[in-house]
Amino acid sequence: MSQMHVTVNGNLTHDPELLHFGDQKFLAKFRVASSRSYRTNEKGNNDKPIWQEVDNLFIDVECWGQLAVNSMASLFKGAPVIATGYLVSDMWEDASRLNDKGEPVTRQKIVLKAYRVAFELGNYQVSSKKVSHQGNTPEGMSPVTVVSGEELVAQSAAERVSAEDKVSLEGNSFDDAVAEGVAHAELAGEVIAPF
């Protein structure tokens, strides 16, 4: 029977833990808190709606190899992540707790064995650097600078060439009288603008 792939998005409850098993074998462990929210009819002191979180889920995530190393290097407590993998039951005997027969109690938890972990970019900008198993990491990469929406709009407006500018750059003439006549016809309802 094949296992169903599961994707969980949420926030890390603590910094990842990295375990090393020798000969380049790494295991990263972290816990993700996820919930669903809905807007209530109530408003807070700032007159904004109050959101209620329900269906809380706390799940342990494990990942191996380069993904474990990258997760350890990139993630932190509170980081918003999207983790995809498959669910398994992790079982062990807890010698510190005994059942009625004096035997260790068997404990278990559900673990997401992740093969993909991504930083959720809804509220963050991150820099990246490609890594490989051979260690051919490019050097001298500059980090991504945080750019606001206003700066992006200003950049795209400066780079954009208007239709009038394009006509003059191509050496064609642009007749203001013709443009003015079309504008008056549009206002009079004689011509419908194409947009």
UniProtKB/TrEMBL annotation:
N-terminal signal peptide: none
InterPro entries named among the record's database cross-references: NA-bd_OB-fold, Primosome_PriB/ssb
PROSITE patterns cross-referenced by the UniProt entry: SSB (PS50935)
GO MF annotation terms: single-stranded DNA binding
Protein name: Uncharacterized protein
Taxonomic source organism: Corynebacterium liangguodongii
